[in-house]
Amino acid sequence: MTKIAKIEYFRVPPRWLFVKITDEDGHFGWGEASLEGHTQAVEGCLEAWAEKFIGFEADDIEHLWQVSYRGGFYRGGPVLMSALAGIDIALWDLKARKLNVPIYQLLGGKVRDKLRVYAWIGGDRPSDVEVQANARKSQGFNAVKMNGTEDLGWLDSPNRLSACVERVKAVKALGLDAGVDFHGRVHKPMAKQLVAKLAPLDPLFIEEPLLSENIGGIKDIAARTSCPIALGERLHSRWDVRPFLEAGCVDILQPDISHVGGISEMRRIAAMAETYDVALAPHCPLGPIALAANVQVDAVSANFVIQEMSLGIHYNVGGQDLTSYTTNPEVWKVTDGYIDLMTGPGLGIEVDEEQVRRLSKDAKAWVSPMFSGPGKELREW
């Protein structure tokens, strides 16, 4: 066992935050602590922890997780859990690389050799979905996800929902499965109507029909429809997830490994969901390190069903994409809707450190979009 010698973090375009941990013997691992729109807050947390954890045993991943989570009195939430995720993923990568095995071998071993994946189409204000869906089909995908609507008022014209129905019809006509993300921007008076309109089209899932803060409303919608309800990107620990499982209002859980404290907590959440017969479909519109970390948990989780990929997502601008920052981007090749399980040590990807350090210089923090209504009132993004 060797002690942690250095913890570094790198803000890189388009909107990601990478973490590197090095031990006294020169072993290293990479993690991802990306929290869209809140980069500086996570960096502040990492700065404090970078000093605190020097000298800790790098192999003691669970001890470091517990110290990070419980040791500061205040706990949970997106900022702390995203910072913790970066450290946790890096420690798993370091340990598995040192042992020359994939991380999934340290989690009990794989239960599958390939994983079903999906990609985004349509953008924040969905359009051109038929063209984009055909492009995804040519890339090897057989499932996609799109935003259901543009921004909506709390009570908007029912006519604004019809366009969503037509987009889903167009994608389904191409033989693709389609998940529809309400993105929390559809409030209850409209969400009830839209779910009912979509049900005959058999969407793959309805994502975040309401914001997760409104568990009563989600439970009500779940009781009204046969559409699978997916959510979880704004739940940051097993304690956040628990009431949704107990309420029976989620069918597909979508925790984000960069927001829930990393591989350690994602594995626990996946096991919790399995006991409720709830499927696992991790949220990941982020970078290659986060996706590789998800794959390690997907590989060992019996209830895994499909993995989000950020390849070509509308937020990846400026030349950087999922295939950036690594020297083996071929691991993300999609064939018949699946990617093969990586077999390399650690996360299974090789980070291009020179590119990370070069592009992190003067990198700007990504700013979340904000939508406004006709009266300049703030609407949900």
From TrEMBL:
Query: Which positions fall inside the Mandelate racemase/muconate lactonizing enzyme C-terminal domain?
Result: 126-228
* CDD domains attached to this UniProt entry: D-galactonate_dehydratase
Q: Tell me its cofactors.
A: Mg(2+)
Q: Does the keyword Transferase apply?
A: no
Give the signal peptide as a residue range, or say none if absent: none
List the Gene3D superfamilies: Enolase-like C-terminal domain (3.20.20.120), Enolase-like, N-terminal domain (3.30.390.10)
Q: What UniProt keywords apply to this chain's record, in alphabetical order?
A: Lyase, Magnesium, Metal-binding
Top-level division of the source organism's lineage: Eukaryota
A Pfam family cross-referenced in the UniProt record is MR_MLE_N
Q: What is this protein called?
A: Mandelate racemase/muconate lactonizing enzyme domain-containing protein
Q: Which GO terms describe its biological process?
A: amino acid catabolic process; D-galactonate catabolic process
The record, for NCBIfam families, names: PRK14017.1
The molecular function GO annotations come to:
galactonate dehydratase activity; metal ion binding
